[in-house]
């Protein structure tokens, strides 16, 4: 497969980019031309910076408070490699370099001695100091030291799991003698058009925040788009994670030496050995290719996978295999190509299996970085983000916490919003509405963001208004690697009525974790309060990988027609104080089902569902894990419940039915048109 990058991006972009960024204010982007706007065009925010594009290069403001009398100036291709002297004894207030993306080391001198030294680059100004960009020419020891430094900051329970630090580690195409370790709120990615373009010697995620190699709290990290030459890659994670577009020359282990692990997402990746799931309770593998898969536990789901699948029939083992992925667009990713940055957006794929890429890349569109507003949490907020969107820019959120005082409004079709380093949108106390609202328009693409609730949130993400009715069949709205959190990060109380509301039709969801926190700070039945996790009102919505946990009432409500859900993982809330506090259907039914399909819905498909209980109050019961109507177009394949701890709480898996196959597990095979049947 050949990418479209050569057609869309040439050597003239760097000059055009520099000219555009030098303008004091930028007018609307091309996507606004046909919108019929009247009056003054919206303007892109600009910031006073130390490094500013000038012509094909940059102008660097020299520090005047370091006591230096003059400066020696060096140039290099990267931050951690060799530098070459280009000017000595320079005495001006600013210096102009000839290369936009070069790195400049500036040594301040006094009396012939170096008294200060700093590296400047436009990449630093654009992406912020918590985005580390590596080159294959860098000193290998320095690269490893930087990786290890970030990992030590982000690895632990006390200093990692709920920290406000965010990091992205990005590797330009080439080979690295480096072993990457990854902790919380970190994304590690190659910058090539193909995973084969960037090679690391190793990659590991340990379960190192709890005893006995327990990875059940290994959340909030992503890895994508490079090759690993190793006998084994260990990716011991649970929810709120993503491994995409990886080329693993060896085996992949999804646990740490058999310690507990609870869920994950693997997509568009090639593993030429064996995937060992081991202790993993549940997992989704979508559009992957692997030699074989070893292991199953509660709930393993394969969609569009090519590889040897464990033998047997449900429920031994508990595996759901869907041969083709009906419709998906792989997540956009940042690339370094022809001496410039850009974002590659893969094409839609229909009825697909296996990976979307080869050594030449993927079919899709390259969008140069000049079309993006690259945001930084130290200087951007909802006002500047909304201004950039209104002016026709896409958004790239560099690592950090963005305080959102008013909703981010996405109103233009084909807008791309993507985060680096688990970029986090956090609702402020003043905002009693939502974090982000997407209009009912074609082709919006949002990915790699953590949405954080506050004291008064009503929702965290709304897609389409209540009156949404437009068809997006030819250009669906795509949402990938989106994580939602209510509570857990501080002692302050939190409230969010419903974390995610999807009103638009033709939406593709790809890896959601929707979480009312069950541990850490500010957690309690009356402290972090949230009614529902996700409500789907739109028609023709497809979700691959939906994980929803601990909300007070229904975890998921699906009201739209022709919905399709592939892989569902859910835990009921642990903390209802009494049965009286946990009653549905106007107080007539014990507990709330996790997965609720509206009684009016005529057509719905759901594959591979696992719903778990761990009631702290052993007297609290839930009549059903799932409630669905007995209409002719309703299809549910492979659902199960599991008792994690405490007393058995479930009365049935689905509508009062379920075959108990152990003391802790009950299952159904197929529910079709109101009838229960064997596969």
Description:
It contains five helices and 57 strands. Helices cover 6% and strands 44% of the residues. Among the domains are: 5-124, Immunoglobulin-like, CATH 2.60.40; 130-323, Single-stranded right-handed beta-helix, Pectin lyase-like (Pectate Lyase C-like, 3 Solenoid); 573-679, no CATH class. The model is unreliable at 1-30 and 32-37 (pLDDT under 50).
Structural features:
single chain, 679 residues, mainly beta, Immunoglobulin-like, Pectate Lyase C-like, 15-stranded mixed beta sheet, nine-stranded parallel beta sheet, 5 helices, 57 strands, disordered N terminus
**Secondary-structure-derived class:** mainly beta
Query: What is the tally of beta strands?
Result: 57
Q: Kindly identify the CATH topology of the domain at 130-323.
A: Pectate Lyase C-like
- At CATH's second level, what is the architecture of the domain at 130-323? 3 Solenoid
Helical fraction: under 10%
Portion in strands: 35-45%
Enumerate how many helices there are, as a single number: 5
Q: The biggest beta sheet, please? A: 15 strands, mixed
- What is the CATH first-level class name of the domain at 130-323? Mainly Beta
Low-confidence stretches: 1-30, 32-37
What would you report as the Rg, rounded to the nearest angstrom? 25 Å
Distance between the termini: 37 Å
What gross morphology would you assign? Answer: globular
CATH-level-4 superfamily name of the domain at 130-323: Single-stranded right-handed beta-helix, Pectin lyase-like
Mean pLDDT: 93
